[in-house]
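Here is one such tokenized protein:
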Amino acid sequence: MRYSDREVIMAVINSVLGPLDTENLGFTLSHEHILTTSAGIQQVFPELIQRDRLVERAVETFTKIKSEGVDTIVDVSTLDLGRDIRLIEEVSKRSGVNVICATGTWRDIPRVFWTASPDIIADLYIREIEVGIEGTGIKPGIIKVANDMGGVTPEGEIILRAASRASKATKTPISTHTWAPERVGEQQISIFEDEGVDPNTVYVG
């Protein structure tokens, strides 16, 4: 069979505006945040965020970087960082920049996760990836995990194993936050390997 006769299937990743062929990613910034706050702040103290003003500033910034050659960003904001999925969607739609959003957690692991099993948490991540976030139908394209100074804590290990299982079930890549001086990334990799995660699907950072 000649090459021209073969069907070429490109990998597809979820963006906030829908499935995106990876051939259309273009120049990509792999670790960004449109908004970072804490879970619940917008709902309880909205005056601290000034959401409308933030949206306009983000659209202006993204429109500028689009004109300078940036096509896609990966926004790794999670629920504990105050992820606002509708805000992310609006900024992407108005600026023309593809945005890939995240499920998972950062360092502020919700306390309800501390005593949950990895399988229970993995199911929550899988639901967001396959069904959508907060009833929006917007699906994340990456799973975020974070371990920092002091290494992988017991609750941190739960999160790593949950992310691993969700990643394997959905073929969604993992992005990590780590602490290089203590080589915490090596601890993360050890757990990923124990869970059977393909290392080619993990970005340690």
User: Anything to note?
Assistant: Strands lie at 12-15, 18-21, 28-32, 72-75, 98-104, 142-146, 174-177, 202-204.
